[in-house]
Amino acid sequence: MTTSAIWHPFTQHGLAEPIPLIERAEGAFLFGTDGRRWIDAISSWWVTTHGHCHPKIMAAIAEQAQRLDQLIFAGWTHEPAERLAAGLRALLPEALTRVFFSDSGSTSVEVALKMALGYWRNIGVDRHRIVVMEHSYHGDTIGAMSVGARGVFNQAYEPLLFDVATVPFPAEGREQATLDALEVACRAGAAAFIVEPLVLGAGGMLVYSPSVLAQMRAICTAHGVLFIADEVMTAWGRTGTLLACEQAGIVPDLLCLSKGLTGGAIPLAVTMASEAIWAAHYSADRSRMFFHSSSYTANPIACAAANANLAIWREEPVLERIATLTARQARRLEGLENVENPRLCGTIAAADLPGQAGYLADMAPRLMATAREAGVLLRPLGNTVYVMPPYCVDEAALDAVYAVISQF
Ligand SMILES: *Cc1c(COP(=O)(O)O)cnc(C)c1O
To answer: Where in the cell is it found (predicted)?
Structure first.
């Protein structure tokens, strides 16, 4: 183990915890070099939607890899990106007219923040304050951390993080405090509000109601504050609908998508923008262009994978699978007797294990180790355990996952 040069993310190597070596994956299963098999109960950190190595996505990647591997995207274009942009336009709300490519969820958030600030600057209005929700997570780059919850994971970088206005999490029964705080922040002339619709993922799978989401949207609209929906985790069916925003009947001004955009096969992200935001950058003046790019923007192979994902959404009964999984999750969650605050949002089931809370609580590594031994990949958030499997997971595998949790 210690002979590897790899520095893993969110891993304390000093604890010498085992790091399984995986050589193959299929559907909801991971296979190790030692012949062992694990159920991927967290979709490889929330990315795998339909299942690992979906044949249509793998075929699209292989086919595209024969044609065009990479292309500068400033001033040049290619068919997979054009097809993907058109496909996203057809699938997603009409008001999101423009598609900007990047390569990770964090970057899609940075892009959204920069577009929001660029919008206000280009229309000549001095607004720059960003409003965020308590317990949010938007990624690990400096801007994304700035709009996310502060805690042990970003304490060292705090001096670099910019100031934001924070509204409380709209826990059941305390929704009005959130709406009031948002009203105050918006009235003060904020540039944008960024939020994870319906479920705060890394914050502990905290669920709030579609009606609060709709009311928050309305407050932003009333004050002209741009509404940024970070659907990096919640999109692509995870919450029961293609977008979580659909359940509130709202459309954001900016929409961040990544993780399940390629079915979870290969990195890609998009930030979709309203026509007004595009129009604020559209000019014969080069100083008003959108100043952002990364080397692999709209990588053709990644776009081909995303096009295959869109085809799966069009051609396969994805929403039916999601409804089936949701019902199966609900039944098993109800059966858990050793947990508190059970919550379900579409395919995401979560609950708290009684005991010490907080990200560094020792509950998480102990449960992770127990699960790993039992052939299940789980990664609790502090004392919050959650099950977020690929949609193809079968009943037997789900039973095995819940058996681990119920016996902990
Ligand atoms: C995972 C996540 C991100 C960051 O995405 P990366 O691809 O890991 O950079 C941003 N926002 C939300 C809501 C996420 O769950």
So the answer is: Cytoplasm
